[in-house]
Design goal:
Chain lengths: 430, 217
């Protein structure tokens, strides 16, 4: 089976072998040039690896867009303590479905990236924290790790370089909050996945109390390519401030949803119209969420001005997040969808902070009331005020993620709320 | 730091779970598209779910499961870190994690029973009470919802003649709503036991259920 979604606009680096099951075999991976970047990295030394990653301008693909090379350089050197590299494969942001594809089609690409990352930060152990629901992905990854151990790419004295690195695939157990970096660490240690107060930051006190760095699957998967070809090569794609390519997960009302690897800075409307074959049934576009459910919703007009890079999204008042583009056409019911997203956060809140725990469930209740035609205009003010108090007042940013869709949708689609409030009428169908 | 030796800690012991063959893991059978016949071995109510019925007094981890438990211990620097995988293993054997199973896990890992319950209840993947042979989790989050996930839930409930969270009379199905399963480009996504079913439409639901029922027997 070929990978179902391709477009001539794509620059396929990470996703080059999507749809080719042979790529999961270690032999094929090596034949196609795999694990040569690892050797190159070992030969050049860890400082040089970090320099190359810095030069590439790579920014973390887990959502925040923090420069990866810089993050790696925060790790203390020669502490004599164990260091850990954690790979964040707990993909559960609604709208995001790239990490699963990366792991199940090209597991060795990720493993090689993990090994190079571990070498750069002097970690002896990599934990790949894979979402629990991914049973099959887990198995693919586990087989790949096992094969790499057998051939000496993982374990003691890798490729005769004198470096020892172990890799463990750890299966999560179903909690969105374990994607938050310190929540993930607690979960890995066998605790509830509740985020920790920072500082101390993970580079000082991380997993098992040791210096740790955490990176997303997509971030680590591109590392072998950057080490192999150099920072300048990576910069030929994308923009000055957001270099490189990125997997865009497009879902919702488009004709061809899927994962598309495009250079950053790609215009949003071009993505929808040319890459994804347009809005379903030729309908008019109503709204887009460009970065997964935690970022503000934008209107069709704003979407027309939006370029998909970190800065371009901020210009139209939203964020790139993990580039999970959710498209809604004229028949979408904004109030219902916002309520559904808030329900999600209310369910996933870990309960440590009052604004988040109480705020998210109250917000969900009020939205449900409005949806049922029992709301008042005053409810909208209450929602705005309440969500305002949920921003910046909590341990992690899950709480802020509730505010983003609620505030942006009330600002931009007030009419839909009012229609429900005044006449109890829905605007959309689904 | 505990005294657990780091014996080949990277060996990810998931291999072999749910009886996937080499061909299935490495081939393209289960990836990308749903098999034409609508199901897959790993999505069936196979050994783990039947085991509990047949041996109610069995030790928590024995035989092959005992080996896997030992292997899990070698992968982490602390014993406590083995808690989540151990609970997962218990669930694989029994189909759910009962308070009694939590207590046994606590004993094995030198943790207090209250602590283990506190952790186990935090995570949604541990079934705290028995579920049907096929646990049907329909994603109703935004991308699937836009594609009509509500109707897929309704179709499953209609076929199984249950309410959300209730087990069907024949013990075959429990249907629940799930949060985003990270397959948003293939809506509606339904997870049945360990397997994903993607692009599910309401009309396909009876066919899927019948297939699963035949597998469970
Ligand atoms: C509530 C919450 C959930 C998150 N979920 C994920 C996730 O599922 N996957 C992920 O890679 N990062 C997630 N993140 C971001 C991580 O905290 C972290 O920034 C990221 O893994 C760092 O990797 P990067 O530098 O490669 O982007 C989440 C953050 C928050 C606050
Ligand atoms: S903001 Fe919410 S999810 Fe984050 S730590 Fe506080 S209660 Fe937990
Ligand atoms: S929204 Fe259903 S899988 Fe993501």
């Amino acid at each position: 089976m070929a990978y179902p979604y391709v477009s001539e606009h794509e620059v396929r680096i990470l996703s080059k072998y999507f749809g080719d099951p042979k790529q999961r075999h270690l032999d094929t991976y090596v034949e196609r040039g795999g694990y040569s970047a690892l050797k190159k990295g070992f030969d050049s030394g860890s400082a040089e690896v970090i320099e190359t990653v810095k030069a590439s301008g790579l920014r973390g693909r887990g959502g925040a867009g923090f420069p990866t090379g810089l993050k790696w350089s925060f790790m203390p050197k020669d502490t004599g303590k164990p260091h850990y590299l954690l790979c964040n494969a707990d993909e559960s942001e609604p709208g995001t479905f790239k990490d699963r594809e990366l792991m199940r089609w090209d597991p060795h690409q990720l493993i090689e990236g993990c090994l190079i990352g571990a070498f750069a930060i002097q970690a002896q152990h990599v934990y790949i924290y894979c979402r629990g629901e991914f049973f099959e992905t887990n198995q693919v990854l586990a087989r790949a790790v096992e094969d790499a151990y057998a051939k000496g790419y993982i374990g003691k004295d890798i490729l005769g370089s004198g470096n020892d690195i172990d890799v463990t695939v750890h299966q999560g157990a179903g909690a969105y909050i374990c994607g938050e970096e310190t929540g993930l660490m607690n979960s890995l240690e066998g605790r509830r996945g509740q985020p920790r107060v920072k500082p101390p930051f993970p580079a000082a006190v991380g997993a098992f109390g040791m210096p740790s760095t955490i990176n997303n699957v997509e971030t680590l998967s591109i590392i072998p390519h950057i080490i192999q070809n150099g920072g300048a090569w990576y910069r030929q794609y994308g923009t000055e401030k957001s270099p490189g390519t990125k997997l865009f997960c497009v879902s919702g009302h488009v004709n061809k949803p899927g994962n598309y690897e495009l250079p950053l800075g790609f215009p949003l409307m071009k993505l929808i119209d040319e890459v994804c074959g347009g809005v379903r049934d030729g309908n008019a576009l109503k709204a887009v969420i460009p970065g997964g459910s935690s970022v503000p919703i934008i209107t069709a007009e704003e979407a027309g001005r939006c370029n998909l890079d970190y800065e371009g999204c901020v210009e139209v008042g939203t964020m790139l997040g993990c580039a999970s583009v959710i498209v809604m056409d004229e028949h979408a019911d904004i109030v219902k969808q916002v309520r559904r997203m808030v329900d999600f956060y209310a369910h996933e809140s870990c309960g440590q902070c009052t604004p988040c725990r109480e705020g998210s469930s109250w917000t969900a209740q009020i939205l449900r009331r409005i949806e049922d035609g029992r709301g008042t205009e005053g409810d909208l003010d209450t929602l705005m005020e309440m969500t305002q108090q949920m921003v910046g007042t909590t341990i992690c940013v899950l709480s802020d993620s509730v505010a983003a869709p609620v505030q942006s949708s009330i600002e931009k689609f007030r009419d839909e709320y009012l229609a429900l409030i005044r006449r109890g009428e829905r605007v959309g169908a689904a | 730091m505990s005294d657990i030796p780091f014996k080949n800690p990277g060996w990810a012991g998931n291999t072999g779970e749910f009886d996937l063959t080499e061909e299935q893991v490495r081939g393209d059978d289960f990836v990308g598209v749903r098999p034409k016949h609508g199901g897959h071995a790993s999505g069936a109510g196979t050994l783990p779910y039947m085991h509990a019925d047949k041996h109610p007094d069995a030790k928590l981890f024995e035989g092959e499961y005992g080996e896997r438990f030992d292997k899990i211990l070698t992968r982490y620097p602390t014993k406590q870190a083995a808690l989540l995988p151990a609970l997962g293993l218990a669930q694989e054997i029994r189909g759910h994690v009962s308070p009694e199973a939590m207590d046994r896990v606590a004993e094995l890992l030198d943790l207090s029973p209250a602590y283990v319950r506190g952790v186990a209840t935090f995570y949604t993947m541990y079934n705290k009470r028995p579920v049907g042979r096929h646990l049907v989790q329909v994603c109703t989050n935004i991308s699937c919802n836009l594609a009509g996930a509500d109707e897929v839930v309704a179709a499953f409930l209609r076929y199984t003649d249950t309410e959300i969270g209730e087990t069907s009379e024949d013990g075959n199905f429990t249907v629940i709503e799930a949060e985003c399963l990270a397959a948003c480009g293939f809506p509606t996504c339904v997870q049945i036991n360990s397997r994903y079913f993607e692009n599910v439409t309401p009309t396909e639901v009876p066919k899927i259920c019948e297939h699963l029922k035949a597998q469970g027997e």
